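User: Please fill in residues for this 242-position structure.
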């Protein structure tokens, strides 16, 4: 662990629009590195507790490996070998958190811990990124991992091209899901749309660089009466436009 590391992320801010994403992907020979960042609109805002981070890399042959995790002031780095041609899918799940609101504001913890709670929700966050290596095929039209997941028809796009992505919930296409697109270069949300009846959405990539697609789904059936009233799933997928 880097001695400069200090947990500073305020997880109550996910209620108003904070999320995790996988950025700064690098390939150095047979070694890959991806950064896990917490913040909003691809701008960092604090560093997460590494004990709450669960990373997995899906290899081209279908096997999984646990990447090496290191931490810095406002990001964590995932490092893993990439000795095969094909697509490596890095996925990070955060330990679920419960956010409760009362007259004093938002707090981390179940609603039974607070008097006169007006809101309480469980938040499950996932971040995903696909790294193509060599001449391997890219065929990812279905989910790999996650209750709410975004897939794309290509691992990399050209600047100006239209991204074609699909949202799944519990392994089924999710219709009318709101999808937001954020350009790292612009540092702001540049597009918003909804999926069609088959879960597909199309978004033009107007500038080059990294793009984050974000989807949120609220499930009011997933609740525990004295702890939280609904479960909120938040997932991101980062893709390059070159």
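Assistant: Residues filled in for all 242 positions:
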């Amino acid at each position: 662990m880097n001695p400069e590391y200090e947990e500073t992320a305020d997880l109550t801010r996910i209620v108003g629009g904070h999320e995790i994403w996988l950025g700064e992907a690098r390939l150095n020979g047979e070694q890959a590195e991806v950064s896990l960042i917490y913040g909003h609109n691809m701008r960092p805002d604090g560093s997460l507790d590494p004990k709450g981070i669960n990373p997995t890399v899906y290899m081209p042959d279908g096997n999984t490996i646990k990447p090496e995790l290191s931490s810095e002031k406002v990001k964590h780095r995932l490092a893993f070998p990439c000795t095969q041609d094909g697509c490596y899918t890095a996925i990070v799940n955060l330990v679920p958190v419960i956010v409760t609101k009362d007259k004093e504001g938002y707090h981390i913890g179940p609603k039974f811990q607070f008097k006169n709670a007006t809101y309480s929700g469980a938040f499950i966050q996932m971040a995903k990124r696909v790294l193509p290596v060599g001449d391997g095929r890219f065929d990812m039209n279905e989910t790999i991992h996650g209750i709410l997941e975004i897939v794309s028809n290509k691992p990399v796009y050209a600047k100006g091209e239209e991204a074609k992505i699909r949202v799944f919930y519990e392994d089924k296409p999710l219709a009318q899901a709101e999808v937001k697109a954020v350009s790292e270069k612009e540092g702001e949300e540049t597009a918003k749309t909804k999926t069609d009846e088959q879960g597909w959405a199309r978004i033009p990539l107007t500038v080059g660089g990294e793009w984050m697609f974000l989807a949120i789904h609220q499930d009011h059936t997933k609740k525990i009466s004295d702890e939280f009233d609904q479960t909120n799933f938040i997932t991101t997928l980062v893709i390059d436009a070159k």
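For context: The CA atoms of residues 28 and 36 lie 18 Å apart.
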